[in-house]
């Protein structure tokens, strides 16, 4: 078995994680159904419930602040915790005054889900917490509430990178977080494939994650560790945006040395016609981010021998250049599976007029115009001296759901990618037929009269000069910061990372431009 353990840090990450686990639950098949190509044991751990029945719960740790879990409890229908000795209920032999907050009422969606009734449509008004649309039961050990800070507190906001660092160090000194929280999940793995981390990096969770990953690297040594770096929330002012980016700069500088791949995912990508969403709703913004990360990791969760199966380390090695370029540019294309299937010609080749212009594994302008870019935007600083380099890409790893490419195109792309003399973009394609399900918990972002209940999705992680622009911009933000203690170290560290993505350094190709 090649298990994947997931770590989730903070509100946005847990909104994304809820979409992710709802999707994993949808892949389960039961007696009389065709076996799913997704191997559930990779992401779920078997166990025994309170009544002795077999259970499957996600291999995940969910960290969030006090007040962030909504109606989600550590105990649930699978793991009700009972106290056998009544004397344990009250160890205090004097009178006690009980103070209780008003309980949070379950959302109508959760009530209908628990009762097995028809599910009402979710809206941005009815989704108050990420637990309001959660479909799965978690093991009690997966739920870790940090009581030192409260969600949306104005007195003690959990916003600064240094605050997250200090919280981790304080808790780790007291409890040894890896021993208490992570080790039980690692010991339940036969052969760990990867650790994937969902976290915001432009607030205090960036500092918390950096120190957590540092401990993991010390404990486990080298390994496949993918960090999906999310944005916390849209900034209301330019000043606030620069503050967030200064925290993101510290996060990239501190996290990347302990990660094997770093994937920045902004909250508000530029969407296409037929796609509508509320940029102020975490339920909406996390839905698109979840589609990207869930698709990009799908090849590592398929059964051995299934079409498109590839370990996450294989996907990673195709673009990271032996770890020299761990930061990648993420992008995604969404399509109706029926329309995509209709693009096949009789001879098995693609009609490029209908298939978004796929030719020999490369993308032409028609595909670029349908691509949603998730690369974060960084405010330009006045001190920035260098213009952005010409757009070019050295390598791209694509994970596709649906018949985006013919078998001949995949073979040719693979042969070209392994040609040491190739001039141009090396494209590695991992294609499978597992469509992305649009569940009742997923917002109606894709709105048209004939909306499908599933999507064909193509994700691309690229080692491109866009990453140079991103890292160089963060370096300038760090250099201009007045509050960052190690601003010179962060500036030089990020500038050094950025140099790996310049055409005359690290072998970036100038032959093919992905300028759209």
From TrEMBL:
Q: Which UniProt keywords apply?
A: Mitochondrion
Which InterPro entries does the annotation name? DML1/Misato, DML1/Misato_tubulin, Misato_II_tubulin-like, Tubulin/FtsZ_GTPase_sf
Residues covered by the Misato Segment II tubulin-like domain? 2-114
Pfam families, sorted:
Misat_Tub_SegII, Tubulin_3
Cellular component terms per the entry's GO annotation: mitochondrion
Q: What protein does this entry describe?
A: Protein dml1
This molecule's function is given as: Involved in the partitioning of the mitochondrial organelle and mitochondrial DNA (mtDNA) inheritance.
Signal peptide location in the record? none
> One GO BP annotation here?
mitochondrion organization
Location within or outside the cell: Mitochondrion
Q: Which family does it belong to?
A: Belongs to the misato family.
Superkingdom of the source species: Eukaryota
Chief subcellular location: mitochondrion
Tell me which residues make up the DML1/Misato tubulin domain: 120-302
Q: What is the lineage of its organism?
A: Eukaryota, Fungi, Dikarya, Ascomycota, Pezizomycotina
């Amino acid at each position: 078995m090649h298990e994947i353990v997931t770590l989730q840090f903070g509100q946005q990450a847990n909104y994304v994680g809820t979409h992710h686990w709802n999707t994993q639950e949808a892949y389960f098949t039961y007696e009389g159904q065709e076996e799913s190509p997704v191997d559930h044991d990779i992401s779920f751990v078997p166990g025994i419930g309170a009544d002795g029945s077999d259970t499957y719960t996600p291999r995940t740790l969910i960290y969030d602040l006090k007040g962030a879990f909504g109606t989600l409890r550590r105990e649930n229908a699978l793991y009700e915790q009972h106290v056998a000795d009544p004397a344990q209920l009250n160890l205090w032999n004097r009178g006690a005054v009980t103070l209780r907050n008003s309980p949070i009422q379950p959302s109508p969606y959760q009530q209908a889900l628990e009762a097995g009734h028809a599910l009402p449509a979710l809206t941005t008004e009815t989704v108050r917490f990420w637990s309001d649309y959660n479909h799965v039961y978690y093991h009690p050990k997966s739920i870790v509430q940090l009581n030192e800070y409260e969600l949306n507190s104005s007195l003690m906001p959990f916003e600064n990178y240094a605050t997250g660092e200090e919280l981790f160090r304080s808790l780790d000194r007291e409890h040894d977080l890896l021993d208490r929280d992570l080790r039980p999940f690692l010991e339940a793995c036969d052969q760990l494939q990867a650790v994937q981390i969902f976290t915001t990096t432009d607030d205090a969770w960036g500092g918390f994650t950096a120190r957590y990953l540092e401990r993991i690297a010390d404990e486990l040594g080298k390994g496949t560790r993918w960090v999906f770096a999310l944005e916390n929330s849209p900034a209301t002012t330019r000043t606030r945006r620069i503050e967030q980016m200064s925290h993101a700069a510290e996060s990239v500088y501190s996290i990347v040395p302990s990660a094997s791949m770093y994937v920045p995912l902004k909250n508000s990508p530029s969407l296409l016609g037929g796609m509508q969403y509320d940029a102020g709703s975490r339920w909406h913004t996390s839905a698109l981010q979840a589609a990207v990360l869930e698709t990009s990791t799908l090849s590592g969760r398929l059964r051995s021998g299934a079409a498109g199966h590839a370990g996450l380390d294989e996907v990673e090695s195709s673009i990271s250049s032996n770890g020299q370029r761990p930061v990648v540019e993420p992008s995604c294309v969404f399509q109706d599976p029926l329309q995509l299937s209709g693009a096949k010609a009789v001879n098995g080749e693609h009609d490029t007029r209908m298939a978004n212009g796929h030719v020999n594994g490369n993308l032409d302008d028609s595909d670029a115009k349908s691509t949603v870019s998730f690369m974060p935007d960084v405010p330009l600083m006045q001190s920035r001296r260098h213009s952005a380099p010409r757009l070019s890409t050295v390598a791209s790893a694509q994970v596709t759901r649906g018949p985006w490419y013919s078998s001949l195109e995949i073979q040719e792309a693979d042969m070209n990618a392994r040609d040491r003399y190739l001039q141009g973009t090396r494209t590695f394609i991992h294609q499978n037929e597992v469509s992305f399900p649009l569940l009742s918990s997923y917002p109606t972002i894709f709105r048209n009269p004939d909306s499908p209940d599933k999507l064909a999705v193509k994700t691309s992680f690229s080692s491109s000069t866009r990453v140079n622009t991103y890292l160089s911009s963060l370096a300038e933000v760090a250099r201009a910061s007045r509050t960052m203690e190690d601003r010179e170290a962060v500036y030089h560290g990020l500038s050094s990372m950025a140099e790996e993505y310049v055409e005359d350094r690290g072998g970036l190709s100038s032959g093919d431009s992905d300028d759209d």
